[in-house]
Amino acid sequence: MSSAALPTEELARRCAEETEKFNRRQASDPQYCFELLRRALAEDRGDAFTLVYQIYERQVLAWVCHHSRFPQTGESAEFFAAAALRTFYFALRGPKFERFPALPQVLAYLKLCVHTAIAQYIRDQRPHAALPLDKADNLADTPDLGMRAAALEIWQRICHLLPDERDRLLAYCAFALDLKPRQIVERYPERWRDERDVSLALYRIRRVLRQDADLCRRAGVDAVS
User: Fold this and answer.
1) Counts of helices then strands in the chain (DSSP H, E)
2) How many Å apart are CA 4 and CA 44, to the nearest integer?
3) Of 50, 120, 187, 212, which one's alpha carbon is 20 to 30 angstroms from that of 19?
């Protein structure tokens, strides 16, 4: 039975199972989670979004706790997880969901919502100077990313700057999933030969992103020459 034909509760059960497989670095099928997200956002179904929240809350909390600036906030991880999921819902609800063709792009945007929620909170509490982009651990950790539309614009700009599908996948693995080169090779051995191959590609990608004045302007950071 296709994912579109499944009842929402069964769809959520399969999505949770496939998410656990993905987290254990096992082969997984993204169709169930993508269909659940489509119902929750494109069709604006509250019952589906409640199940999305239950499935992805743990991952969102982990992203919050691993954010380099989270300890500066003094707030709970639950505070930012709720803010990120709320922003995610309103930003992708209805026809706006059509901008995201597959599960990786949807989850990458969800992670951007986490980073923007923390950055926005810090900016509102204590204004600070922009950081050089080359000092950030990864692009998603840079401050002042903005909320909702700003996060979407940044991700779209990244995709524009990286027209090669393999580069986009690598950027997603490194920046959204926080995977190390070794983990990326283990997950995609057919695309990258070894850790050095991944590291060189990431160096090139970071250089491209950090040299783009428009991306740096959107992120509120300094470009590098």
Assistant:
1) 10, 0
2) 15
3) 120
In the numeric block, the tokens 């950090």 are attached to 210
Distance between CA atoms of residues 121 and 127, nearest Å: 10
Handedness of CA 26, 186, 30, 117 (dihedral sign): positive
Q: Which residues of the chain have pLDDT under 50?
A: 127-148
- Angstrom distance (rounded) from CA 54 to CA 135: 35
| Token pair for 165 | 């599908």
* The one-letter amino acid at 8: T
Residues 129-165: pLDDT tens digits? 444 443 344 444 333 334 445 566 677 778 888 888 8
Instruction: Say how many residues make up the chain.
Output: 225
Long-range CB contacts (within 8 A, 24+) of 89-95: 89/40, 89/41, 89/49, 90/148, 91/148, 91/149, 91/151, 91/152, 92/41, 93/41, 93/44, 94/41, 94/42, 94/44, 95/42
Q: How do residues 73-98 score in pLDDT, each as one tens digit?
A: 889 999 999 999 988 998 898 998 99
b/e sequence 32-60, b meaning 16+ C-beta within 10 Å: bbbbbbbbbbbeebeebbebbbebbeebb
Tokens 């690598």 -> residue:
170
Amino acid at 178: D
